[in-house]
Amino acid sequence: MVDLSTIKPDEVLDCKGLSCPMPMLKTKKALQKLQSGQILEVLGTDPGSKNDIPNMCKKEGHEFLGMIDETGYTRYFIRKK
Amino acid sequence: MAFGEVLKELYESIFRKNYSPVLGGVLLALLVILLEMWYRPWGIVGGLRNWGEWVLYGIGFLEEAPPHPLWFSSSVLDIGLLLGAFISACLAQEFGIRIPPKLEVIKAIVAGILMGIGSALARGCNVGGFFMPLANLSAAGIAMMLGLMIGVFLGVKYLLWEIERFSSQGGKEISMKKISPLLGVIALIILFWGAYDYFSSERENAYLLGGSLLLTAGIGFVMHRSRLCMVNAFREPYLSGEATMAKGVALSLFISMLGILFIKMADIRDPMTYVEPTFIWGSLIGGIIFGAAMVVAGGCGSGSLWRVAEGQVKLLIVVIFFALTNAILRYYMDNVWEIWDKGILGSAVYLPDVFGYAGTFIILSLVILLWYIFVDWNEKTEKFVIGF
Q: How far apart are CA B111 and CA B120, in angstroms?
């Protein structure tokens, strides 16, 4: 298991305040720019993302490392395939 | 396992976890059929227009006062949906005021105006112009479905163009997590107190409105729990190939159609209910405009409303401009240009008049089945996927 609280992401993507489908589109776009194995942290506020981001990772083959609920937003961690 | 744990698990799966689109679709169909048996077909735009008309009356644009929102059935349907979705969002602690970045605000205004225009031409949004007319055996439903497919394709093209050029950031959320269960309980009390008031009223159709309020609250709750989204159903086949939502909506549409077929065969409702003079141009062109706009908005008629109830400010802006544009445009179309009598946008075609009930059932089943097969095949082959 990866300890999410100490993880160092290579890129942080701010999707706060955005609603479906923008967080998903931006996440996919950001992942395109990363190298294989690098970690993307997404900050989001859309409740739909809690299902959409893990599902997208499964479909595309990226590793979904987990999420942390903070006050007012959620942090998602993805390792690019 | 202890009894308490069983209860807790049940509570979690009903009030906190998300339902699958298939479960959401089946429950939605059940409620839609019950509502039509109880009183009238489900709709969204009529209520929004009523609220828009009150604003127009307030600023002096309209001379006559529109019907009272609490005694106008279309409006009661929307109030019910908002309450149900709000209760769902609060009990799941998903309610929060989500403030979008600037670009999203501009998109919301433009998309809201276009949704108002599209729904005026088609005399309904995705619910009152596509889903319900199709379930009510009107040819217009098929025409708007085609329009939506074309429009959504254009909308997706725009989103892909935007994502390459702009990066909007700086939105935020005002968290309501701590107080949201309390807000949910208050909304529940308002819902049942409101329904009680309708049922104990002396007014002629009051109990009908009371039942409608409860049933649409059920619709709002179910839609929010399953995040049932017709934008997603039409968009994802182009954007990612994902067909789960499309299949849920297709199933929902089939069950609704079957139920309402029996309602109309039994003469419980006037056959021409939700059969509007928009076949084919009003529904097709309206569908194209509405389809493109709902992708940019990130919510259709029903989907925008349940997202408002979870605190999405972008969708609130969409709904305001949607309601005002529809109210203004329909005022001119109905009273000034008298467009419907001239038959410019098409005619009212009740499919059983042409094909009989059996023929209509076969045709509509085939339309829904073809859609289902198309999205399923596309999910596997990605033939129509233009996203990345």
A: 14
| Start-to-end C-alpha separation, chain B | 46
- Please give the Cα distance from B21 to B242 (Å, whole number): 12
> How far is Cα of residue B10 from the mean position of the Cα atoms in its chain?
28
A71 touches chain B (CB under 8 A): yes
Q: For chain B, how many helices (H) and strands (E)?
A: 16, 2
How many helices (H) does chain A have, and how many strands (E)?
2, 4
Which conformational region is residue B166 in: left (phi greater than 0), alpha (psi within -120 to 50 degrees), or beta? beta
- List beta partners, residue B99: B172
User: Is the CB of residue A19 less than 8 Å away from at least one CB of chain B?
Assistant: yes
Q: Give the tens place of pLDDT for each residue, B46-82.
A: 999 999 999 999 999 999 999 999 999 999 999 999 9
Q: What percent of chain B has pLDDT over 90?
A: 96
- ipTM computed for the complex: 0.92
Phi/psi at A70 (5° precision): -105, 175
Distances (CA, A) of B295 to B115, B174, B272, B277, B385: 10, 25, 31, 26, 15
Chain A residue whose CA is closest to B298 = A20
Question: B257 with B133: CB under 8 angstroms?
Answer: no
Confidence of residue A39 (pLDDT cuts 50, 70, 90): very high
Please indicate whether, in this complex, the C-beta atoms of B232 and A21 are within 8 angstroms of each other: yes
Write down the residue that tokens 């339309």 correspond to: B367
pTM: 0.95
